[in-house]
Write a structure and sequence with these properties.
The chain is of the alpha/beta class and 341 residues long. The chain has one domain. 23% of the residues lie in helices and 20% in strands. The chain contains eight helices and 16 strands. The strands form four sheets. Strands 1, 2, 3, 4, 5, 6, 8, 9 and 16 form a nine-stranded mixed beta sheet that branches. A three-stranded antiparallel beta sheet has the order 13-14-15, with no helix packed on it. It is globular, with a radius of gyration of 19 Å.
Length: 341
């Protein structure tokens, strides 16, 4: 999204699912992080020497920030879920101050040969749910950061206005990589068309009338899919009908970003930025400059539970964890944002 269309500098955070096609992790410049339920290994070998994460001046700070983000996200995830795995991400970067994109991430996906079903096997999610590595030791996914934007890299303080919060953005991208993403193409086809093979997220998509996008025979309901460009929720657009997410939303389906013009990498795979009730959450499609959320809401936790993640018992209230993080200077964005709006 172009930041000129927003009231404050709000830029798009993209996601994508990747088909497995000779995607091999390099063995150079690894950085690891381990904490709580997930550990991350970051592979920087695709960065051009002297640029991006290998920049002679800023590269070390950038790598340290990513490792710190991995540790912090692991702690956040581990507050709610018991699933555990080491996730290997290929790290790349760009440097485009004119781009409206902040970052992107995705999971490698493997096709098991089936012709129908929610069997678009995302390597990251499958590894966390089953412990099985479908990609035979190669990288599980990727993450890209646009260093052409102004970033705030200090986890212990909030981003000032005029800079984008690195941790909120990277947490957002990690959440996409673990499954918060649709696999449906703009024209309504599967990545494996003509076969009807979809991601786990797609099972819960439906229009405002409750019509599921993927029918019982795993074919696409074209009329329901038309809602992907229907407009803002709760009146229009696409919705997420997972039981846990709906329970966290007062029994109502959760609005997804459904602009009237399709936006590649953003439409359907995010909470609805255009819905005032949802716009302050981490998984909306665009992030503002200044203080930004670094914790999950109950709705976001519910979506991940619907995607199969095993909740700790009892599930911590998101507000409780937010209060704990506040003591570390990691949260407080929502109150400040309301005051600044």
């Amino acid at each position: 999204m172009n930041s000129s269309t927003q009231s404050r500098g709000r830029l798009s955070r993209l996601t994508h699912l990747m088909l497995s096609s000779g995607f091999v992790a390099g063995c150079l410049a690894f950085g690891g992080s381990a904490n709580a339920a997930i550990s991350f290994t970051f592979d920087y070998s695709d960065n051009t020497p002297g640029l991006g994460f290998l920049d002679a001046t800023y590269g070390t700070d950038r790598q340290n920030a990513l490792v710190t983000a991995g540790n912090a996200f692991s702690s956040l995830f581990g507050q709610y879920f018991t699933n555990s795995a080491n996730i290997v991400l290929k790290v790349t970067s760009s440097d485009d101050s004119q781009s409206s994109n902040l970052a992107s991430a995705g999971s490698v996906a493997i096709w098991d040969g089936s012709t129908n079903g929610f069997t678009y096997q995302e390597v990251v999610r499958n590894k966390l749910l089953t412990g099985t590595d479908l990609n035979d030791g190669a990288a599980d996914g990727d993450v890209n950061v646009n260093w052409g934007q102004q970033w705030h890299l200090d986890l212990n303080s909030e981003a000032p206005y005029g800079k984008y919060d690195f941790y909120s953005t990277v947490f957002h991208e990690f959440t996409h990589a673990i499954g918060f993403s649709s696999s449906i193409n703009q024209n309504g086809t599967s990545p494996f068309a003509p076969d009807n093979v979809w991601s786990a997220f797609d099972e819960f998509l439906g229009d405002k009338n409750g019509n599921r996008v993927i029918k019982s025979d795993y074919s696409l309901d074209a009329a329901a899919w038309a809602a992907s460009t229907g407009g803002a929720s709760p009146a229009e657009g696409m919705f997420f009908y997972g039981a846990y997410a709906m329970a966290a939303n007062g029994g109502n389906p959760v609005g997804l970003y459904s602009p009237t013009t399709w936006k590649n990498g953003s439409s359907v795979s995010h909470l609805d930025t255009d819905n005032p009730v949802l716009e302050a959450m981490m998984m909306t499609h665009a992030g503002p400059d200044g203080p930004s959320p670094r914790v999950f809401t109950a709705i976001e936790v519910g979506v991940l539970r619907d995607l199969g993640y095993t909740a700790v018992t009892p599930v911590p209230e998101p507000e409780t964890y937010a209060m704990m993080l506040a003591g570390l200077g990691l949260v407080g964005w929502q109150v400040r944002r309301r005051r600044a709006a």
